[in-house]
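During the reporting period the student researcher (J.K.) took over the structure-prediction task from the postdoctoral fellow and processed the backlog of single-chain submissions. One of the processed entries is reproduced below for the supervisory committee.
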Amino acid sequence: MTDGKALSAQDRVAGVLSRVRIAVAAGVDWVQIREKDLPARELLALARASVRIAAEIRSGEARVIVNDRLDVALAAGAAGVHLGGESLSAREVVRWCRRGNVPADFLIGVSSHSIEQAREAESAGANYVFFGPIFDTPSKMAFGPPQGIPKLAEVCSAVRIPVIAIGGVNEENGTECLRAGAAGVAAIRLFQEPGELADLKSAIGRLHHAS
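J.K. obtained the following structure tokens:
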């Protein structure tokens, strides 16, 4: 997941793209563009460039997902859109997409914070759900206290679609999430902070080995 807010305004897009390139080269499966505050034109340019980087480095293996903006995701040729609490409802988006408006493999993901929300996303036709926060993290405090590994395992057993663990996930506790049944993990610091390609590649390799 990208987060360019910590970068200077002048270098933000270039900085995000640099991290995208490193992450894709290191072996991440998905890159989620979550620069929600960028103007539409800049967000589209960022998404398009990210799609191009993914295709150049690992065509068919690394996918780019855009947060909230279905229009930007489609215009950029992204692999899917991720819907949060303030996005259009998953049911509406799925209904519109199933009318033949998107490629057959276009992904629709939904953020969830309870078993009920995860089940509703599945019922609506979502392809996957994020569930969390699993661990304590400042960025997810608005969504309540940490859910923990036992709750993650419950959610994974309650739905048939893939569950991605999010919230305070790092290399050490990420393996716990995968053993609990999560199909993957989503994080900002885990994938964005390591400065060297080799460091990130090693971390991703260990997570893949644990899954």
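The committee noted the following: The two ends are 19 Å apart (CA to CA).
J.K. will present the remaining backlog at the next meeting.
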